Amino acid sequence: MSRIGKCFDAIKKNNKKALIPFLTAGDPSPSLTVILMHKLVEAGSDIIELGVPFSDPMADGPVIQRASERALAQKTNTDDVFNIVKDFRIKDKVTPVILMGYLNPIEVMGYSKFIKKASIAGVDGLIVVDLPPEESAELQEALKFHDIDQIFLLSPTTIGDRLSRICDAASGFLYYVSLKGVTGSNQLDTKKVEEKIKEIRTKTALPLAVGFGIKDAEVAQAVGRISDAVVIGSALVEKIAEYTGNTEEMIQGVSSFISSLRKALDNI
């Protein structure tokens, strides 16, 4: 069983909800990314979602776009992302790490080479935002060979046969994008999310994580009540940007923020 599977089994056994923070690799620097990853775990995170910097992150809103720009300004490349995971694994061999990014950097490196390097580094899952399941057979084959889960995104407009196809292709867990639009959007309607989650659960037994539009502990708790996991992205990246230039305050601010989310989820 993968680290992701073991993580969700433990969470279910303990009647808890998974907390999955997102940060961009290399923002504000590769070395600080590793430190922040450890601090996220210490503050109560269960899985780390690590963004691969890309010059045209079309699914991301302004906050994460700027994070990619900062990381690229540090000359963070794909191999640097793998090295960040390797460095993290020196001390933490338990917490699952998921890479989230776009197809272009994978194609440039080549599917087999990319996945082999990811596996050696200690990556557990991969989300490719712009690769639909109909075109993912080659990548899926490489991922399965190296026991890396392919995590697919679902949205409010994913229905019918397409919903079934994505649920059948996915492994690890499914990531429900709760809003139409890009990351950092604001209009989260938990009742609509709950309705969609119920529909998705008729198609799969995989855990369901919800992201987009989760800004604070109150919203995280509301989403946690109807899902298996909560993904926190733009709100966390914004915290990192707020404290850039002051490492100690950044670590304290990030840790405090994640701790507040952990407490809210534990009080469901």
Task: Describe the largest sheet.
Answer: 9 strands, parallel
Q: What's the architecture, going by CATH?
A: Alpha-Beta Barrel
Determine the fraction of residues in helical runs and give it as a percent range: 40-55%
Give the total of beta strands.
9
Q: Pairing-aware structural class of the strands and helices?
A: alpha/beta
CATH fourth-tier homologous superfamily: Aldolase class I
CATH class placement: Alpha Beta
Rg, Å, rounded: 17 Å
Fold and architecture overview:
The chain is built from 12 helices and 9 strands. With 268 residues, it is of the alpha/beta class. It has a single domain, classed as TIM Barrel, CATH 3.20.20.70. The chain has a 9-stranded parallel beta sheet with strand order 5-4-3-2-1-9-8-7-6. α2 links the parallel β1 and β2. α2 packs parallel to α12, α10 packs parallel to α12 and α11 runs antiparallel to α12. The chain starts with a helix and ends with a helix.
Write the topology of this structure.
Blueprint: H1 3-13, E1 18-24, H2 30-42, E2 48-51, H3 62-73, H4 78-91, E3 97-101, H5 103-109, H6 111-121, E4 125-128, H7 137-145, E5 149-150, E6 153-154, H8 160-169, E7 174-177, H9 190-201, E8 208-211, H10 217-224, E9 229-232, H11 234-242, H12 247-266
Parallel strand pairs: 1-2, 1-9, 2-3, 3-4, 4-5, 6-7, 7-8, 8-9
Helix pairs in contact: 2-4, 2-12, 4-6, 6-7, 10-12, 11-12
